[in-house]
């Protein structure tokens, strides 16, 4: 098996299980034209986020790492009336494009994009005593994953679901001798989930159009 096979299977599942979506197609095209890195979730992964949010019945969702707003739109579509996605993005150019994409998708009233360093924004949110979130999606720089987890827990409550993306790092997560700061961040992230008394968690490795990677899933007790 190789990347060609994995991409073909992802395409089959997307074509079979997802309805055609010209709006999201245009969002991806805009991101490509703007030169954003192609690190957004795949369409079937976006649908997974949507389903998880629906199954949770999430009304408040925190996303760490907006990029062009593709996953943001999937999450916003899962919200009931009055729900909100708060998405954090450090790059002003990405945030501006994401706002336009969210508007194109008709989700502007359900999404608030906050620009700045995520750690600083999260610390302000905690200081402002913001209401807790029902679902958290962590998909930013992996070196800071441990801090993102710590701060997300302060904005969670019993039953909050925390999803961490890109945790396999092409298998490097299992390398105890790695010097890669992003891999080390993921390793500490996983260790924190294992040791934390408020969390029960697992992680799944995947292959697909985005290559070999995976995600973690944790529940706040």
From TrEMBL:
<dbReference type="InterPro" id="IPR002935">
    <property type="entry name" value="SAM_O-MeTrfase"/>
</dbReference>
<dbReference type="GO" id="GO:0008171">
    <property type="term" value="F:O-methyltransferase activity"/>
</dbReference>
<keyword id="KW-0949">S-adenosyl-L-methionine</keyword>
<keyword id="KW-0489">Methyltransferase</keyword>
<keyword id="KW-0808">Transferase</keyword>
<dbReference type="InterPro" id="IPR050362">
    <property type="entry name" value="Cation-dep_OMT"/>
</dbReference>
<dbReference type="InterPro" id="IPR029063">
    <property type="entry name" value="SAM-dependent_MTases_sf"/>
</dbReference>
<protein>
    <submittedName>
        <fullName>Methyltransferase</fullName>
    </submittedName>
</protein>
<dbReference type="GO" id="GO:0008757">
    <property type="term" value="F:S-adenosylmethionine-dependent methyltransferase activity"/>
</dbReference>
<dbReference type="GO" id="GO:0032259">
    <property type="term" value="P:methylation"/>
</dbReference>
<dbReference type="Pfam" id="PF01596">
    <property type="entry name" value="Methyltransf_3"/>
</dbReference>
């Amino acid at each position: 098996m190789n990347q060609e096979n994995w991409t073909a299977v992802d395409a089959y599942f997307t074509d079979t299980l997802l309805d055609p979506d010209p709006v999201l197609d245009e969002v991806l095209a805009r991101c490509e034209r703007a030169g954003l890195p192609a690190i957004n979730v795949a369409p079937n992964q976006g649908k997974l986020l949507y389903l998880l949010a629906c199954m949770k019945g999430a009304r408040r969702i925190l996303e760490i790492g907006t990029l062009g707003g593709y996953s943001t739109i999937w999450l916003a579509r899962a919200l009931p009336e009055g729900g909100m996605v708060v998405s954090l993005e450090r790059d002003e150019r990405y945030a501006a494009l994401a706002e336009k994409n969210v508007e194109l998708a008709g989700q502007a009233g359900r999404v608030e994009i906050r620009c700045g360093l995520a750690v600083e924004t999260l610390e302000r949110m905690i200081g402002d005593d913001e209401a807790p979130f029902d679902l958290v999606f962590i998909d930013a720089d992996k070196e800071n994953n441990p801090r993102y987890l710590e701060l997300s827990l302060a904005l969670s409550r019993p039953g909050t679901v925390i999803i961490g993306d890109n945790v396999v790092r092409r298998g490097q997560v299992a390398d105890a001798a790695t010097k890669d700061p992003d891999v080390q961040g993921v390793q500490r992230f996983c260790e924190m989930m294992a040791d934390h008394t408020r969390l029960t968690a697992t992680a799944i490795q995947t292959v697909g159009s985005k290559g070999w990677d995976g995600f973690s899933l944790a529940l706040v007790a």
